[in-house]
């Protein structure tokens, strides 16, 4: 049994991760923490996440000096479900203590000059760790994940997008000089657990946001190795992402080639389901899966990709990475 | 045409009221204001309420000294959709200037010693105006509303509850020494337009709150003239209230007597619909109506009462009161 | 006052239309009908649409021989909110009796050989009337609507799509040999009022459907005069459509040109709101408006277009057409 | 490993049960069946329940003669998630073959003369088996469940109601000659998986139904051993039940007595959570728990009780009964 500490347990992804660790046969949930100043510190976990009562009854401790010391002691791995800058600062403190870190934030995902300044509004001051981080897209980077101590778990939109696009890119099926268009809709939990007028019950409906400037667009491009148009929307549901993706195929590409590309990529990956129906939020919410389906006509391929943003888009993907890193069965604790 | 000013236009009830005034053939919407310090001051109205674009395009002005002066000048009536204490302080300033006030807050609804200290957390410092205020339950207090300059528009839960219970009380059909039980569910807009974790999209589902201490319980009791048990719930919808009410009938009361009580109360009140089906949120949301239906067995009467909390529970009832006060047709601008 | 008959009043669009006619100062709602065999025949209207109780209390009559006779007598205009084939068969019966018809179905929208066989599954047997029909997209075909007796009110998705695309097409701003992509999400009421597992509460979430074969794709292309990719989705809300549209602009097109194109098209059309924010379902549901907003980068224009599918996508657009045809103010009864 | 067959796998409770059996370490899901004439026969399970793809990939077979033979062969226990009459007819066929039956329908729940005629509309023709059935309310009937071959798993509303009321009844805390009032709201999945206008997405909101005649009222009374008023409502959510229960306490009953009654009943029952907050649908949806919380004033006790209707109200309670009957840990496969 490995001892796991989760920092940032007050959020939705942190809560899901706590439940997953609780249920995992090889992991022991050792402690839950939030930032020292958080108003959620010292509350019972179930006061924040009532569904967890009786399952995860640990207190949510503040990550002050004593908390930090405690979090490092006897801990086999750390999960950070914290804000980007907080992760950037915390990760090295655990890494230098020899504790592997699985970071659910965006702090270590993109190794590109100026990226954090432009898209996150801060200068990355841990460039060495950034350069060592492995992007935690489990189905594509398994070998590197096995050998790293710092996994930057892939973002929610990027996971849905990249799982759909990378097989096509790998097989060379995307038409040169064309740009795939990703139209994605996320549930409200993607905005995190917080009081904000924009995510209040009465204000949410369905609308585009982040037009031409969402930070997940360069994350997708960077890990795809090619340009994309990415347009996110907020939808009126709690959890899930549906991406509808439009791809111009190279001349002469056949349906068989497309099918083969997806088969080759995922025939051994039970988490990615090549479904016979179009994906839906209902089909993936509460599950660790990514559902893919596609159809083509006149050289245009439309791909539907759906995930639960809190699971495959965050915590269950983190668990996949933990399984890989520590040599467990790839889907242990997930199915 | 009467000039109307709305203060507290940033909230949901204020927005509905602005639309109603805009559509009313005898009213002119002269100005919209919010408290001087509000972050919504100086925004276009439609930036807060996008559905109003092209209908109500007034700016939302701050109620600073200049705003106050402007709000009083050439104004025939004032609507306050402000916080309780704000209303308590503002109303007299307009009343002493001779401008009738229609207050949607709870500041002038209950003329009972200690009520505001106990249930609202402040001492009422306008006892004279409080004693002059008329409770704006349009179907029951029409004559007094016609003759007052200060209407305390009835609360949302009290409106749904009192419209169901007052006919029974008036006809003496409630069993002595029994207490009606009101189980009510409100949409989230009842909590107002604000950022709060409890009303964020991801947290709302269906749950009781305010057990044994909601301020609408004494408001209902006071205006009914009898004890009630009142248990509110928050539901996962934006607007509407459904109250399911359990009443022990006096011995021997017949169905005909119950029907007659409701007919007598509302046969000339088109806003209260004595429906042949059980009411639903769907049937009243977006309408000015209160839907009532009932059934009895073994001396127990169950009454269903549904309203739109923002309309009959706030703004359209305010408009009913305005119609009464200024001698317009009772439902002008509502049907 | 013109006498209006609505056939197909059991559906959601028919109900909205009945309310609009009821409120319109120059129209009198004379009768409501459904197909003779419908199980909704002879029910009170409010048994189907509880929100209408007290507003529209007409019975829903069966369109049998007597009903047909009655529907034709003393009627100034007919609205058909019926199934496509039903409309195809009914419209001529009223037209030959000299009664103008406003058809909300797809029966008379596209004058293209083989269209109905391919996309609607029946052969159009009224080719002459089809050739005379005017497409009821009010902002674009006002002059022809004024002079026709058969208006084929535009479809819901086509309305949202065409209002966004036609200004660009008219101004020649779309890059040659590129195809705009329309990613659209509709509320469930778009599927009509019926019992079906696919639209049951427990099954609806968010998913693509009709991939490469939705009948609104050719309707859009035909009335735009250019190819489009159109991908509809079912969303978990009752009413509204949001279309997010991706357009490659011709080389050198500036933001000013795009803005000018929209201004020129809609500066005198209050129903189309050129908003400063991105449209949302919340902003248009329950309103007759189409909200448009756009942004461009590197030659790609993204346009958001939102309507209420039952209003601007059906009944309020029908009313716009009625206003035009009978010489009323263009937005009479709508604002 | 015990071989489990589920009949009625096309419904929502059947699907949840299939997932639970799939995850249970001591159970093997051997087969899934539906009635021979069902349109869902021969479909892949995930075509009906997309979330199950990759987890439960069995075909859904018709229960024709061959299916019946197959279902009996090598099967250790049968779960019936079928319609009431179907269960009544099927259960004896498996019981006489020596196979224990866990029936999720209402067919064997109430052993009272005339009950089925009055409330289910059919005459029970298996009175002997009915008399042998044990009511599957796991926390209260564990000893009998261990020794029976026919478990009538408790209904959804009765589970939420009885878990709240039985401790009070057992401790003699309910005032004589008073009747507890149960105001309950259920998610739409309680109506089953079917096409019906009443459960279509556009029609569902929140409304009372089954006033004074719901079949769960006598089921609750029978197993409580006392009268109740039970008023169900349909709510606009997929899964979950919230019951708000009003109980007149016997004179002099103290809060300590009430607390003690609940502690005594459930201190060893981890599935019933005595929460410190009021229960919510959000806190129990997707979990096997029943959440209870209460407060009293002036002799009135208000109890909130929430469950997931498909889990504790159906399939996870069935699994609790299976665990009890076959000697597994009481919560094996549930936590």
UniProtKB/TrEMBL annotation, chains A, B, C, D:
CDD domains: AGPR_1_C, AGPR_1_N. InterPro entries: AGPR (IPR050085), AGPR_AS (IPR023013), AGPR_dimerisation_dom (IPR058924), AGPR_type-1 (IPR000706), NAD(P)-bd_dom_sf (IPR036291), Semialdehyde_DH_NAD-bd (IPR000534). The active site is at residue 156. Its main location: cytoplasm. SUPFAM superfamilies: Glyceraldehyde-3-phosphate dehydrogenase-like, C-terminal domain (SSF55347), NAD(P)-binding Rossmann-fold domains (SSF51735). It is an enzyme of class 1 (oxidoreductase). It catalyses: N-acetyl-L-glutamate 5-semialdehyde + phosphate + NADP(+) = N-acetyl-L-glutamyl 5-phosphate + NADPH + H(+). Belongs to the NAGSA dehydrogenase family. Type 1 subfamily. This is N-acetyl-gamma-glutamyl-phosphate reductase. Keywords: Amino-acid biosynthesis, Arginine biosynthesis, Cytoplasm, NADP, Oxidoreductase. GO terms for cellular component: cytoplasm. Pathway: Amino-acid biosynthesis; L-arginine biosynthesis; N(2)-acetyl-L-ornithine from L-glutamate: step 3/4. It comes from the Bacteria. Residues 3-148 form the Semialdehyde dehydrogenase NAD-binding domain. GO terms for molecular function: N-acetyl-gamma-glutamyl-phosphate reductase activity; NAD binding; NADP+ binding. GO terms for biological process: L-arginine biosynthetic process. Catalyzes the NADPH-dependent reduction of N-acetyl-5-glutamyl phosphate to yield N-acetyl-L-glutamate 5-semialdehyde. Its EC number is 1.2.1.38. It is found in: Cytoplasm.
